[in-house]
Amino acid sequence: MISVIIPHYKDNDRLILLLEQLNQQILKRDYWEVIVVNNDPYFPLVLPEKLSLVYILKILEESNPGSYAARNKGITAAQGNIIAFTDADCLPDTDWLKNAWDLFSQDFKKEIGILTGPVPLFFKDPNHLSPAEIYEKYTGGFTTELYAKEGKAITANWFSYKSVIEEFGGFNSELKSNGDSELSGRISRKYEVAYIPDLIVYHPARFHVSELVNKYQRLLGGTYTRRFKDDSIGFRRHLIQFLWARYRFALKRLFTLFPKESIPILKVCHAINMGAIQEYFSLIRGGETKR
Length: 291
What we know:
With 291 residues, this protein is α/β, with parallel strands linked by helices. Helices cover 46% and strands 15% of the residues.
């Protein structure tokens, strides 16, 4: 059996879309289950009564903050010997589970540590992109094939044997970001990270600039927790490199794109950098990492 684990935090509308989309999976219904782990301790998750699902759904609550703590809670409750991770805002292709099932069925020597695939972006209105969507259009979204070659995977599209996840102790629940990179990096030292192009999960491009700012603040916080908590000088160098990379990206687009796209990209990059500086000072003063 495959247990699909979905952490949830204040994203009911998109979670409902995902749960409805999972009705379309072509893998036999008794081969999989879905576990949603609500990570908002103040608002228990209540789904609408009219929601009709053809598969087994479990709803759990995890009060410890962070999606990795929520995923760990889901792992402990999973009945499947294979764990699938995706996010509440994602939309898997209809043969997502079937393609994974077929590949694991052929893994007789249990060599696969992680199975992953493409995570292409989709837009609200492809003909009228917001500044944030323009930025994501040119940053390429998620380079999951490259990640897999580096021994990494993202939890938007990740399958593993439950035994492998448990062998490595699950995710580091102290991290608010980079937890997937941290765990997949450890797993890849012993097992294969396999990438197949037809294992597809669609992810929405971020529509608001504030969403991108929050994303990079979380990434910065995760990097700080993993690498620089006791290295303030190293963290300052990392921040400078981060800021320069954003501005360099924007400056290149000023010379290669029309102003209707290059100017929004510059503004978005500036907003991301201002958010990164704000997060830097918050972290070095002992503030909590973003979630």
